[in-house]
Amino acid sequence: MIRFLEDKKGIYILATTESERVNIGIFAKEIADFLDDPNFALVSYPSFEALWTSFLSHHQFQKFYETQKKIPIIIDEFPYLIERNRSIPSQFQRIWDLHMRDSPVMLILSGSSISIMEQEVLGYKSPLYGRRTGQWQVEPLSFEHLKEFLPWSGVDLAQVWFITGGIPAYLELFDSTMDFWSNVSRLFLTKGAYLTMEAELLLQYEFREPANYLTILKAIAERHTSLGEIIQASGLDRSMVSKYLSVLIKLHIVREELPVTATPGSRKRRYRISDPYLSFWFRFVYPEMTAIEARQTSQVLKRIKNNFPRFSGPLFELLTEHLIRERVLFPDTPINQLGRWWHNETEIDLVGISESEDLMICVECKWTDLSQNEARVILKNLEEKSQIVRWKNENRKTIYALVGKKIAGKRDIRKSGYEVYDLSDIDRILGTAE
């Protein structure tokens, strides 16, 4: 947000959890600095409306308007204001409708609480509904940008993505002079460390009663992915699980999946935690909190190392999907749909569909080192499984692909008509090879 203002004159205000009066004083100080008028901050404004009307009528405001078409006003952590006073959206509706709408300003409301932003600011019942000209949810960094934080490649960078998902604030905590596991020990398994506590604090921020959400997320992290499995693992009844899953999906914490060729009404739903950091935390950190509190770091780390390859498999699928969506892999193929596919006991890690080209891409992802023979067996099985997929079976063209940690004999396999990539290929494409 601050960078957005680097080449333009505007106002950035960071709201706090303090009272409305205190926040009005903070706003007045930032506006006074913008106007270069210290006296503006000395006035006691009775409301946000009084504050903004005073600003818009200030003689300096017109001078700034003459230099640029719109003056950006950024209010960061807007949910803090709403938490203190639920009438804030109504107040800002009035401020916008009566004072700002026809003024040369651009009002940007930002916040890290997804639930409050989507329900209280963007939601249908919000007083501010219908007044936005755009909305943008900030996404994690693309995998290719991890190299800008850590001068690593291959396995190490992939493993960092598996446990952070490309969140810049998390990546900045890593020490590139230490190895991957030393960073895990320091950042995730140390009592009071930032990433040890972050997930629980995030959920407490989003939910007033996070206990049931924690239970459901832990069940999903342990690979209970169907509704029935989650109910059984959590011990909660069906209606509660369905309700909590609905909330988690709306907040983009959990992702609901259908086989990529299924109709929207299909009951073959599975659930997956969307965020790699939360997946790792619920799988390995949350169950070990007692041991972490007792400073049994080395014992916990040993258990994580033993189970990390199994955890990494599904995360490598997510990373491969990410690389396809980012057009790192298959850059010249227009893909309309992409996701997992399954029918009874048969599964394909990723299936991409290109409607315009009558093309289907079937991909297997293996977080392991493969010999040429092992790779060929996987691809042959993939060909057989693809015959079960019902989509333009008479006319479609099909590409069979394997993405692995390390694959031997790639050149010979490609001569047989298959697409094959491993981490060294991804490094080369992204320019991250050392």
From TrEMBL:
UniProtKB keywords: ATP-binding, Nucleotide-binding
The UniProt record lists the ATPase domain at: 60-173
Can you give the residue ranges of the DUF234 domain?
281-378
Please cite one Gene Ontology biological process associated with this protein.
regulation of DNA-templated transcription
Gene3D superfamilies in alphabetical order: P-loop containing nucleotide triphosphate hydrolases, Winged helix-like DNA-binding domain superfamily/Winged helix DNA-binding domain
Q: Does the keyword Amino-acid biosynthesis apply?
A: no
Q: Which GO terms describe its molecular function?
A: ATP binding; DNA binding
InterPro entries from the xrefs? ATPase_dom, DUF234, P-loop_NTPase, Tscrpt_reg_IclR_N, WH-like_DNA-bd_sf, WH_DNA-bd_sf
SUPFAM superfamilies found in the cross-reference section = P-loop containing nucleoside triphosphate hydrolases, Winged helix' DNA-binding domain
What residue stretches are annotated with the HTH iclR-type domain?
A: 214-256
PANTHER family documented for this protein: ATPASE (PTHR34704)
This chain's protein is named ATP-binding protein
Organism encoding this protein: Methanospirillum purgamenti
